[in-house]
């Protein structure tokens, strides 16, 4: 946090301006023809913007600058832009040239709102709503419950916060500039969500207990009126961010909220989740603190990671008997007894607000078509914890199944675990039979089938698709079949999903920290494709096989040329 002695008359010294106006530019005119198809909309909005605070001359400049921006960027004018421009325009009263004010405005949108105004439907905003809601539930369950019970969703009150980057929520421009400076320096696309949660958390007393009709008014009243309030909100935003488990923070940071091509799939995936989820890797670090689980030299974030956490194994006792992880607590009540579910969190009541709670089910929470969780035990306990206003409650992604797989990969001792009687182990061991392979082969076209028959070196590897971008292994077990010139991916019923020619292979990679994962890069396909294998040995063996085939193919081509 920077000092509060920033006044607009020394705008040249303001950190925000230094961040936005980095290289001196030649002066240019911000006056332009006011002839856009929707010019009337801009005009009307300009009239309404802080009408008692800015002069008519400033309104004229405001309209010109907004019009110029739309022309230069080919973006149609949208509400929000006006509120973001005004603070910079006001600096012109203190001698800032118009073109610098305009440049700062343009740069600010570039760094904090990126593609927001490019999209006619503000899709990045949808992502923020969902993330903000998940964070609010995680950090401030009391107010989150209250708003949810009254059907007040984030779109209803945070739209203007986000689209104006809080310009209308900070009464003094001095403080607004400090907030904006902090948002830029944070360099985190979802930081505005942390600010939103922090604001709601700070002003929750004025909202809680209000009658339904008065809640919107109470939410509307939220504003930062002093430097102390701004500092509290910023400190709290940082605290909320730092309290997140590493894998949750990393996943959120990886959501490319401004990529208009991928945003729909992100928001779709996010909208199906009812709470934040921790990756198995982090849970395993926490359950086995004495074991070194990665190759880092000095200790990475994950290795140094320690915070008070209680991992609650929510599986039924039959499953728990087949193996469990050290340092976990059990839900040992009757799953079908609502009272048991309701009472369970009370066990931890005196550590509420201090400890994190990670709920471990047998697999992922299942969602129906409406994004609602089916009523499984994890969901029931999750709700119960929230009702008791427990903070920091999350679920373990992929549940025990994924952690079990991780434990086997890293030779971690699972308590009471007998491989031969463990259902999961038996499932994993089921190697594809020769019959499976021949079934797969039958579905191939005749030419390739002929080649496969004459070549006895076909190899089949079990794998799962791995999403490189978000670091998630997909559920479905697949076969990766390496033939004499083809790599074929089939599902367990031998339906061919993908087929790649080995000669098109550009690169095949097996990174050190993700040693069970192979990443293929084909000339013919833009995206890299990754698969996760049962362990690093299997991945290496597949890598070796593909490389051998690739080399022999290359030799043949060279021979052909001679
Ligand atoms: Zn490490
Ligand atoms: Zn097992």
From TrEMBL:
InterPro entries: Rab-GAP-TBC_dom (IPR000195), Rab-GAP_TBC_sf (IPR035969), TBC1D23 (IPR039755). GO terms for cellular component: cytosol; trans-Golgi network. This is Rab-GAP TBC domain-containing protein. One of its GO terms (biological process) is retrograde transport, endosome to Golgi. It comes from Stentor coeruleus. Residues 1-187 form the Rab-GAP TBC domain. Transmembrane segments: none annotated. It comes from the Eukaryota.
């Amino acid at each position: 946090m920077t000092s509060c002695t920033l006044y607009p008359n020394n705008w040249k010294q303001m950190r925000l301006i230094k961040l936005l106006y980095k290289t001196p530019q030649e002066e240019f005119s911000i006056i332009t023809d006011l002839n856009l198809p929707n010019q009337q909309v801009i005009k009307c909005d300009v009239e309404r913007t802080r009408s008692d605070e800015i002069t008519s001359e400033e309104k004229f400049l405001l309209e010109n600058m907004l019009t110029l921006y739309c022309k230069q960027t080919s973006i149609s004018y949208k509400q929000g832009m006006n509120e973001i421009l005004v603070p910079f325009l006001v600096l012109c009263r203190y001698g800032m040239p118009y073109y610098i004010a305009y440049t700062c405005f343009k740069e600010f949108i570039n760094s904090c709102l990126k593609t927001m105004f490019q999209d006619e439907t503000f899709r990045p905003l949808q992502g923020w709503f969902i993330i903000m809601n998940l964070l609010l539930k995680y950090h401030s369950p009391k107010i989150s419950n209250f708003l949810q019970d009254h059907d007040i969703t984030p779109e209803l009150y945070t739209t203007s916060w986000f689209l104006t980057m809080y310009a209308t929520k900070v009464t003094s421009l001095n403080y607004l500039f400090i907030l904006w400076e902090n948002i830029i320096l944070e360099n985190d696309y979802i930081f505005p969500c942390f600010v939103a949660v922090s604001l709601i958390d700070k002003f929750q007393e004025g909202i809680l207990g209000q009658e339904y009709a008065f809640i919107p008014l109470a939410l509307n009243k939220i504003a930062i009126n002093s430097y102390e309030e701004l500092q509290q909100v910023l400190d709290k935003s940082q605290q909320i961010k730092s309290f997140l488990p590493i894998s949750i923070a990393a996943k959120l940071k990886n959501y490319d909220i401004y990529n208009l091509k991928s945003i729909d799939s992100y928001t779709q995936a996010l909208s199906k989740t009812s709470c934040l989820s921790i990756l198995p890797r982090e849970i395993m670090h926490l359950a086995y603190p004495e074991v070194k689980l990665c190759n880092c030299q000095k200790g990475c974030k994950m290795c140094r990671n320690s915070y008070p956490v209680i991992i609650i194994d929510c599986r039924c006792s039959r499953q728990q008997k087949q193996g469990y992880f050290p340092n976990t607590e059990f839900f040992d009540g009757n799953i079908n007894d609502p009272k048991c579910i309701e009472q369970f969190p009370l066990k931890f009541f005196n550590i509420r607000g201090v400890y994190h709670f990670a709920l471990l089910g047998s697999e992922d929470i299942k969602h129906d078509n409406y994004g609602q969780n089916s009523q499984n035990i994890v969901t029931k306990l999750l709700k119960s914890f929230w009702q008791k206003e427990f903070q920091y409650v999350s679920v373990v992604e992929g549940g025990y199944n994924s952690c079990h797989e991780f434990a086997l990969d890293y030779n971690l001792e699972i308590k009471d675990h007998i491989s031969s009687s463990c259902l999961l182990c038996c499932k994993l061991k089921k190697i594809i039979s020769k019959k499976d392979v021949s079934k797969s082969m039958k579905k191939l076209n005749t030419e390739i089938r002929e080649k496969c028959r004459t070549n006895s070196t076909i190899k089949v590897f079990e794998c799962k698709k791995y999403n490189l971008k978000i670091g998630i292994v997909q559920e479905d077990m697949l076969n990766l079949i390496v033939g004499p010139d083809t790599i074929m991916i089939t599902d367990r019923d031998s339906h061919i999903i993908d087929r790649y020619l080995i000669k098109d292979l550009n690169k095949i990679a097996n990174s050190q920290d993700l040693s069970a994962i192979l990443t293929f890069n084909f000339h013919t396909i833009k995206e890299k494709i990754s698969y996760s294998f049962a362990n690093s040995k299997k991945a290496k063996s597949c890598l070796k096989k593909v490389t051998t085939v690739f080399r022999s193919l290359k030799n043949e081509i060279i021979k052909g040329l001679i």
